[in-house]
Specification:
Largest sheet: 8 strands, antiparallel, barrel
Strand order of the largest sheet: 1-2-3-4-5-6-7-8
Number of helices: 0
Distance between the termini: 20 Å
Helix content: under 10%
Amino acid sequence: AAEGAHGETSMTCTNPASGHKWQLKIDYDRATADAYPASISDAKISWKDASDGGNYTLDRKSGELTAIFASSTGGFFLHHRCADN
């Protein structure tokens, strides 16, 4: 886990196009994001969500979250903005 980051935190992530909001929970001690194993560095947090197949990357400095979904038609990206609660 990143230096100095301990415990749990939650963030509100918003899709700027649709306005859809959801809560992202990060546990630095267990290295998880929404309970999925995550790679946590000072710059980013990355994880794969087994429930929707998305690969997520959160830029810790800007709060930009990119979700990448593969599909037989080429896949797609979703962008969100996350901020601490």
